[in-house]
Amino acid sequence: MSHHENWPKAWRSPEPKKRYDAVIVGGGGHGLASAYYLAKEHGMTNIAVLEKGWLGGGNTGRNTTIVRSNYLWDEAAHLYEKSVKLWEGLSQELNYNVMFSQRGVYSLGHTLQDMRDIERRVNANRLNGVDSVVVSTEELSKRIPYLNTSADARYPILGASFQARGGTARHDAVAWGFARAADALGVDIIQNCEVTAIRRDQGRVTGLDTAKGYIETPKVGVVVAGNSSVLAEMAGLRLPLESHPLQAYVSEPIKPVLDTVVMSNAVHGYISQSDKGDLVIGAGIDRYNGYGQRGSYSVIEHTMEAILEMFPVFSRVRMNRQWGGIVDTCPDACPLISKTDVEGLYFNCGWGTGGFKATPGSGWVFAHTLANDQPHELNAAFAINRFISGALIDEHGAAGVAH
Ligand code: FAD
Ligand code: PYC
After folding, report:
1. Ligand 1 atom nearest to CA at 61
2. Which protein residue has the closest C-alpha to ligand 2 atom 1?
3. Ligand 1, atom 45: nearest CA belongs to which residue?
4. Stretch 69-97: mean pLDDT, rounded?
5. pLDDT tens, 228-279?
6. From ligand 1's centre to the CA of 226, what distance in Å?
7. Domains, the chain, ranges and CATH?
8. How many A from CA of 352 to the centre of ligand 2?
9. In the predicted model, is pLDDT for residue 40 greater than 90?
10. Distance from the CA of 191 to the center of ligand 1, in angstroms?
11. How far is the CA of 316 from the centre of ligand 2 (A)?
């Protein structure tokens, strides 16, 4: 008999109940993590996750899986560092191998000003307890032999920052691990269940219209990444977000050549090698707004130029696949994890090009926010009202991907 038959289901697929104490909209990593921590940390088990497609079919399953916490400002560094700490125990926590691999992340500097910015950020990281060092070109050439560290390069590499605890993880395993663990705690996970309207009465949430009928609930947490503005409009809200495609690419599998992650903001590309051997590659957003999960040719060309500038040795490697995800970018390159003016309605969005690394931490603080109707100290600064108060947290320099 084949070993690939009669596998037990990793989670149930129940029909939705008529009423839940809370509903999470969006079955990506952040939504599933939010549901898991709501059940585990706050004892809220009469809850559901509604996903319009399949679990992890959004950005969670489309990203290049870089995890790090070397952000400039205290608020962001603390939030992302909480997440890295959760990553470090996540496979044990979920009893599911999320393949978190702390292979280190290098961010290259190509100009004197890049290096000044890198030094400033490394110093800020260390003051916040985030492991971060400046490395020289000589060290880089020893550590990453195929990196072009020649002084004759078009954009010569002058050094880098390095976070040793950063790395990569298996993206869909994160969604599946959180889903299985949340299901085991009683959370109903319902796929193919698009939310089409958010019902309100006298300024508070009362329920959701969905592809599987009306569901009554007093609390709704919206975690839909690139579709956040669409859901906000359903509740009469406007968020300071733009939706853009962000592309990724994988090559044919090749023998192990790169055992770390390399990013460059200046030539603008990033690369790692998966355990299967594919080179996993990405760059910046497509500049136009849109909801198509593909992207344009000019960005493909730009990305390949950037990778070959850093690694000319890859010029003969054939690319296998390309795709796009829709990222919701915020003007200060930081997320919104927030209550709204509608009572019982919460948004967790605006992670833009960099939310995969935050998956466990985001779920952890969002669960706290929903359960207590107030933010945790780690996400208090990420409320929507920062766009009224002006207390923005400008992380464009650390975002790694220009947007
Ligand atoms: P998603 O995984 O997109 O989940 C949202 C879900 O909501 C989707 O499954 C969607 O189907 C569902 N949904 C939408 N509308 C509705 C509705 N009306 N009803 C019900 N469900 C709905 N971040 C990093 O940290 N490191 C990286 O290396 C990195 N690389 C990236 C590369 C690419 C190409 C892309 C696209 C993104 C990258 N990111 C990266 C960003 C990261 O992927 C996202 O920030 C993160 O995965 C967002 O997770 P999420 O769970 O919020 O969103
Ligand atoms: O935020 O580190 C990041 C990142 C890398 C690739 C896309 N986002």
Report:
1. 2
2. 354
3. 355
4. 98
5. 999 999 999 999 999 999 999 999 999 999 999 999 999 999 999 999 999 9
6. 7
7. 22-63+172-241+332-389 (3.50.50.60), 101-167+242-329 (3.30.9.10)
8. 9
9. yes
10. 16
11. 25
166 lines ligand 1 (CB under 6 A): no
Q: Compute the distance from residue 361 Cα to the ligand 1 centre, in Å.
A: 15
Q: SS3 letters for the chain?
A: CCCCCCCCCCCCCCCCCCECCEEEECCCHHHHHHHHHHHHHHCCCCEEEECCCCCCCCHHHCCCCEECCCCCCHHHHHHHHHHHHHHHHHHHHHCCCCCCECCCEEEEECCHHHHHHHHHHHHHHHHCCCCCEEECHHHHHHHCCCCCCCCCCCCCCCEEEEECCCEECCHHHHHHHHHHHHHHCCCEEECCCCEEEEEEECCEEEEEEECCEEEECCCEEECCHHHHHHHHHHCCCCCCCEEEEEEEEEECCCCCCCCCEEEECCCCEEEEECCCCCEEEEEEECCCCCCCCCCCHHHHHHHHHHHHHHCHHHHHCCEEEEEEEEEEECCCCCCEEEECCCECEEEEECCCCCCHHHHHHHHHHHHHHHHHCCCCCCCHHHCCCHHHHCCCCCCCCCCCCCC
- Give the ligand whose atoms come closest to the C-alpha of residue 25: 1
- Going by pLDDT thresholds of 50, 70 and 90, the confidence category of residue 399 is confident
